[in-house]
Amino acid sequence: MKLASLDDLEVNGKRVLVRVDFNVPLKEGRVVDPMRINAALPTIRRLLDEGATVILCSHLGRPKGQVDPKYSLEPVARALADMLGKPVRLTEGANGPPEDLEGMAPGDVALLQNLRYDPREEGNDPAFSQELASLADSYVCDAFGAVHRAHASVAGVPLLLPGAAGLLLHKEVEVLSTLLESPKRPFVVVLGGSKVSDKLGIVKNLLGRADSILIGGAMANTFLAAQGHDVGNSRIEADRLDEVKAVLADAEKAGVKMGLPTDVVVAEEFSENASGTAVPVDQIPGKSMALDIGPATVKAFGEAINGAETILWNGPMGVFEWPAFEAGTREVAKLVAGAKAFTVVGGGDSAAALAQFGLEEGVDHLSTGGGASLEFLEGRPLPGVVALSEGGRS
Q1: Residues with a known catalytic role
Q2: Residue ranges of domains in the chain, CATH in brackets
Q3: What is the largest CA-CA distance in the chain?
């Protein structure tokens, strides 16, 4: 799938509608984590440098089609203005209105109010797409975190305007496509997180592509249970056991090594104050639950990671937010960040772990879209990418 880039778009003297992902955490009316705003800055600055009038649009939270001051983009506009060193005009409504944008000139920046204030955004209403498209001469999508949603600003507008992928979106698609199509080998995938159902699609799609798939986090409990281990009170998805058994069988047929925990850190209660004990996976006490991978597992995972040429990591190895159960995620993060391989990290929890341990600079690519990256790696078409590739009017 070929996406037009900013090089293909003439923007000098034009109004450009840019779909960004400014769905950032707020506290007391201030942005507390500007990562997603920072990620969009290169595209915004390039468009400004090339003489465009930039009109940004984004969602924030889930206001459910209602105007809710709690989800106003006003704090985002203030933060962005500070970053750009110039005013950012915030419109009253999600679709402008057009008069809020009067008098804008090349080099000016505006931000539409929260797109999800209008229920037509999530409904992918053609009329709302048309209203947004009427505000600009061309369209740029740089919201990788939203392209898996068939919403008006993502899947409707690019069919109506000449469009291109922003620098962030272009890089995300390029990097993740490389993982699926031509990774340097050995290609090692490290998956974690709480729900096996969230990651089975990735496992299935990578069975013919990866050399090793290492499984940690609570999702590993279902894999262990599928192998016949008694996992005590550990969280499992019982309705997925047969599917997991089939995946393990398919992996063996495909010659893909599935790395599962050989030891885990357990506690008798799910509590930050609980004390953890490392035990082999065949000796989990009946009243205990696994909350992290153990040191022997970390060592085994390290051998695979150190021998890799390409690494994908998505999902923590345990409840890393609590000191007693952070070691597995911390050590895997160190291994990935210190690897000589090309390293890609996706998912909000994995990114948070890297930040917690000060390791963000150690990876080659940190994906900004949790759900979008998962669906891309599953091989599913992303509505926003499909619409952009189909192109708008000329």
Answers
A1: 36, 195, 348, 371
A2: 6-169 (3.40.50.1260), 183-377 (3.40.50.1260)
A3: 71
